[in-house]
Amino acid sequence: MDLLKRASIPVAALAISLLAILLARVHSAWLWLLVICVPLMALGIYDFAKRTWVITRNYPGAGQVKKVISLLRENLLK
Known about the structure:
By secondary structure, the protein is mainly α. The chain is built from five helices and no strands. Helix 2 (about 10-25) packs antiparallel against helix 3. The longest helix has 17 residues, at about 35-50. This is FMN-binding glutamate synthase family protein. It comes from Paracoccus suum.
C-alpha cells in the first residue's frame, strides 16, 4: 500500500495515458493528453531510481514541487 501511495502520480499518469491511447482511436486530439502524461511517468520512474534526494523518491509529485520552490527561493534571495 505504501508503494502505491508513493507512486500515485506516475500510476495515474499511466492510467490516463492508456485511456488516451484508447480514445485516440475515436479522435486523434486525445493524443495531446500524452504530452502531459508521458513526462510525468518518466519523472516518476526517474525519481524512484535515483538515490540522492529522498523526498522525490518517497513523494515524487510533492518532492518535485518542493524542489522547484527551493530553487526559486535560492534565486530570489540572491
